[in-house]
Amino acid sequence: PRRNVTGSVVGRMAHDLCQRYLDDTVFGESLSRGYVRVMYEEVCDDPVGSINRVYQATLGRNAPKEVHSWYKEHMNSGGNSAEHDRMGLSRNATATASRWRTELPVLCVDTT
């Protein structure tokens, strides 16, 4: 249960996750092409621009309107399926993207 997770456990998990992200970033940037780093928050803030950036970098064209329609339908739902179904396909993406800020203990969030 979440209540049994201590700050030190979360800190270790966060450190390990950040290290994996750093390793992935270093590897991705070493590729000659076909790598685009996109933060989930960026996609939530500017879905059309972010999705088109990925399509442009990998396929040389903007995403089809069906892709944007799918995103809008599944990522802007009124509810938050991640509360009960973390693998669900519909959620309020903007709320999900910043939920960690309110759910983690204050001591685990370094804002510097």
Fold and architecture overview:
By secondary structure, the chain is mainly alpha-helical. The chain is 57% helix and 0% strand. It has 6 helices and no strands. The radius of gyration is 17 Å and the shape is flat. The chain starts with 6 loop residues before the first helix and ends in a 9-residue tail after the last helix. The model has no long low-confidence stretch (mean pLDDT 77).
Summarize the helix and strand pattern as letters.
HHHHHH
Q: Please estimate the helix content.
A: 55-70%
Estimate the strand proportion. under 5%
Shape: flat
Structural class: mainly alpha
Q: Total strand count, please? A: 0
- The total count of helices amounts to 6
Evaluate the radius of gyration.
Answer: 17 Å
Nutshell version of this structure?
This protein is mainly alpha-helical and 112 residues long. The chain is flat.
Based on the model shown, name its key terms.
mainly alpha
